[in-house]
Amino acid sequence: MIDLSLRLARRDFTLDVALPLPMQGVTALFGPSGCGKTTLLRALAGLERAAGRVALGDEVWQDDAAGRFVPPHQRSLGYVIQESALFPHLDVAANLAYGRRRAGADGARVDLPALVDLLGIGALMARRPATLSGGERQRVAIARALATGPQLLLMDEPLAALDAPRKAEILPYLERLSRTLALPVVYVTHAIDEVARLADHLLLLDAGRVRAAGPLHALLARPDLAWAGPDEAGVVIDATVAAHDEAYGLSQVRFAGGTLWLGRVAREIGAPVRVRVPARDVSLVVERPARTSILNVLPGVVTDVHAQGQTATVRLVCGQSAADTSAAPLLARVTRRSAEALQLHPGQVLFAQIKSVSLM
Ligand SMILES: Nc1ncnc2c1ncn2[C@@H]1O[C@H](COP(=O)(O)OP(=O)(O)OP(=O)(O)O)[C@@H](O)[C@H]1O
């Protein structure tokens, strides 16, 4: 457990956060601009002097009550920012070697060739940073941060400076990284697609305070958290590939709530996949539609209706039957008028028509 209790007051802003963060997986720090994400990350690293306590398991980095404050360079952490600085006069190999040397004994633990392989930078070893693309540079920066053998990896919008194609190129590496390495990652981002793809846990900040925190799936399925903007609400679902339909270029995936069709995915039957269902692409019907162009229609039971302004976000659980308790949640975004016309209420049985499902 990462034990965090930090308070920092600025003129118009106060960071006040106290909660445990998990020691495994990727925790995404999410929230509107200026809510304190970078400040929290820097305070965690000791780069910003907040009051309170920071402990990584048994290792106490800050404890004001005991007069303890470990300076940032003595904390075993990697820190990757938007445009990480590499040594321009050193090639990639020498940049990595520097990271490793800096770590001393910790660095000796690191399997550098495995790291190079994981980030796909083997072919870049003799290149100078100025000759690398933005995405390649970030991959090297991540490798260098990890070459120090850190116990915690902090990433502050590592993809924000990249255009969409570069971002798409680097995301699979980050995904592999988070699945392969056994170290906790705290990842600041504005982008819901990065959250949906990479995160295991979510910490939602609002004006310096924790608005919500918990496992990704549960938090994304909360209808009251319209935090990501109305178009960004939606759940992510862990599923496995169940079938391919080559003739129509489709794949079917199975999850706790049933099955879904989506565009052909290049994965074998049985492979685990994470898919995203945006709330705006889910509509609700009271009776099972007899003839519809929508491929995915799932029965579900309403658990929550959260109206705000002219829209309502509806949480429902889908299963093969209404009594199926292992069922998975979905969010649907409908107009408030429709919510009233259909008299949506908890316990109601209906059907979700899902217009789009995308592979993460
Ligand atoms: N060095 C600083 N001096 C004074 N105020 C600062 C400083 N850095 C940030 N702030 C203020 O502290 C608050 C939190 O800023 P912070 O950068 O942590 O937010 P953020 O959530 O990371 O924002 P963004 O998503 O825009 O990067 C903001 O009100 C910001 O204006």
From TrEMBL:
One Pfam family of this chain: TOBE
PROSITE patterns documented for this protein: ABC_TRANSPORTER_1 (PS00211), ABC_TRANSPORTER_2 (PS50893), MOP (PS51866)
UniProt domain ABC transporter: residue ranges: 6-232
SUPFAM superfamilies: MOP-like, P-loop containing nucleoside triphosphate hydrolases
Origin: domain of life: Bacteria
Enzyme class: hydrolase
EC number(s) recorded for this UniProt protein: 3.6.3.29
Transmembrane stretches, start-end: none
SMART domains: AAA
Domain annotation Mop: ranges: 291-360
Family matches, as InterPro entries: AAA+_ATPase, ABC_transporter-like_ATP-bd, ABC_transporter-like_CS, Mo/tungstate-bd_C_term_dom, ModC_ABC_ATP-bd, Molybdenum_import_ModC, Mop_domain, P-loop_NTPase
Record key words, sorted: ATP-binding, Cell inner membrane, Cell membrane, Hydrolase, Membrane, Molybdenum, Nucleotide-binding, Translocase, Transport
Entries under NCBIfam families matching the protein: modC_ABC
Record-given protein name: Molybdenum ABC transporter ATP-binding protein
Highest classification ranks of the organism: Bacteria, Pseudomonadati, Pseudomonadota, Betaproteobacteria, Burkholderiales
